[in-house]
Design brief:
eight-stranded mixed sheet; six-stranded parallel sheet; binds ligand PMT; 423 residues; 22 strands; Rossmann fold; 2 domains
Length: 423
């Protein structure tokens, strides 16, 4: 279940493109995420995929004709237009885009578009020539000017067999866009939230690194959850294995020093920082210029030096009125940066503690030392790379909330609820 989709009625319009087969995956994903999905189709769309496919996936009536009635005798497309929280046309052909731009309503999809007041998302799919044609671009611009959100088509193999721009965007990208549009005006709207995710890598030589097992799942779940609640999200990502979501600004930071620079820069106008990244505490004192040869040696020693503690730097900045005193940080950062933006609110700072032993005691010590508002204590190795996590939340004032094992998306919501109470 995805919180923003749960109990929402999504209206999916399908038009006559070969990409109609991908709409089945979209309907299925949205239904499984907890949404009620109504489907309207043009006659041409039904030639690619039958309505029965969508009825089976959504367990709801599908409308393919402007004159069609629902079992309760209401006019199908009108009833669906009225109850929709969002209208998504995927795939949207050049013809349908043109009709909607000009207010034509001679099929179930265009008639629904004219009647509904729900936000409109369109995922165009067509041949490159049609997409690049000035008239299509003008029609798309018209819809955007009226508030529609376009999920740009990608480049790839088209129905003709040619390759070019016009291929419908990936289903995951369409789902991201739906979540972001539904989340507008949510309880974190007008907030900037900075999240770190993944693991850092510290180079030993040009081919070897010191790394850890973080997959980025926890940090990405936080970033997506914050986006779905209307926040402006900057995700500072180390090494990870996640798909980069839409509607989030991604900053790549591979080493601990790069991550520190990015965090100190990005919190200047932020309302909250959530450090879910697994940051290396040490790095090799020197990075060898060439690949280290094994030679005859049975052992070799690697000298390590301490990495900056990013959260400790943030705490320092909070204490010292935001002056950056670390000469390693680029000069552009020094001086002018503020901890919180001109909004006058304080920066909420949340850290994680990943421990193999004495979890709560170690977490409490980190909460104090790093001057955090909240620490999320999670056990190693269970927390790394898994879809589930079992965490204990410890607040600055001492309150402790022990949570049962749950998906990282759900844990992210609980952490974001906390951000909301402190804002
Ligand atoms: O990415 P996943 O596979 O989903 O796994 C999630 C996770 C286990 C990585 C995540 O839940 C987690 O616990 N992240 C923090 C891991 C960690 O490095 O914990 P720590 O106890 O070493 O560090 C304490 C806090 O200080 C963390 O918020 C960390 O980001 C921060 N830190 C650590 C070192 C450093 N040099 N600077 C820091 O700011």
């Amino acid at each position: 279940m995805i919180r923003i989709l749960k109990n929402k009625t999504l209206l999916l319009g399908i038009t006559g493109s070969i990409a109609a087969f991908k709409a089945a995956g979209l309907a299925s994903q949205l239904t499984q995420a907890g949404a009620a999905v109504d489907v309207v189709m043009t006659r041409e769309a039904t030639q690619f995929v039958g309505p029965l496919t969508f009825e089976s996936l959504t367990h709801r009536h599908v409308v393919t004709d402007v004159m069609a009635l629902l079992p309760d005798s209401t006019i199908g497309h009108v009833a669906m237009a009225k109850r929709a929280h969002i209208f998504v046309i995927a795939p949207a052909t050049a013809h349908t885009i043109a009709k909607i731009a000009h207010g034509l309503a001679d099929d179930a999809v265009s008639a629904t578009a004219l009647d509904t007041r729900a936000p409109l998302v369109i995922a165009p799919a067509m041949e490159t020539g049609m997409w690049e044609n000035a008239v299509t671009q003008e029609n798309v611009a018209k819809l955007v000017a009226r508030g529609a959100v376009v999920v740009e088509p990608g480049i790839g193999r088209l129905a003709s067999g040619a390759s070019g721009k016009g291929r419908m965007a990936d289903v995951d990208d369409i789902v991201d866009t739906i979540r972001a549009v539904l989340g507008r005006g949510g309880d974190l709207a007008n907030r900037k939230i900075v999240v770190t995710a993944g693991g850092t890598q510290e180079p030993i030589d040009p081919v070897r690194v010191i790394a850890n097992h973080s997959s980025g799942k926890m940090g990405f779940a936080l970033a997506e959850g914050a986006r779905d609640r209307g926040a402006r999200v900057t995700l500072i990502a180390g090494v990870h294995s996640q798909r980069v979501p839409r509607g989030i600004e991604l900053v790549e930071a591979t080493s601990a020093c790069e991550m520190r620079d990015a965090v100190l820069r990005e919190i200047a106008d932020a309302d909250a920082l959530i450090m879910a990244a697994a940051v290396a505490d040490f790095r090799p004192a020197q990075q060898a210029e060439h690949k280290i040869k094994k030679g005859q040696a049975e052992t070799i020693a690697l000298e390590l030096v301490r990495n900056p503690d990013i959260l400790a730097k943030v705490a320092e900045r909070r204490k010292k009125g935001n002056k950056v005193e670390d000469p390693a940080i680029s000069p552009a950062l020094a001086g002018g940066a503020r901890v919180s933006g001109g909004n006058g609110r304080n920066l909420v700072v949340i850290g994680f503690a990943a421990e193999t032993n004495d979890l709560l005691a170690n977490a409490r010590a980190k909460l104090e030392a790093k001057n955090l508002d909240l620490i999320v204590a999670n056990p190693v190795p269970q927390s790394f790379g898994n879809d589930l996590d079992q965490a204990t939340l410890i607040e600055r004032g001492g309150a402790v909330t022990e949570l049962p094992p749950m998906p990282k998306e759900e844990l992210a919501e609980k952490i974001l609820d906390f951000v909301n109470t402190l804002r």
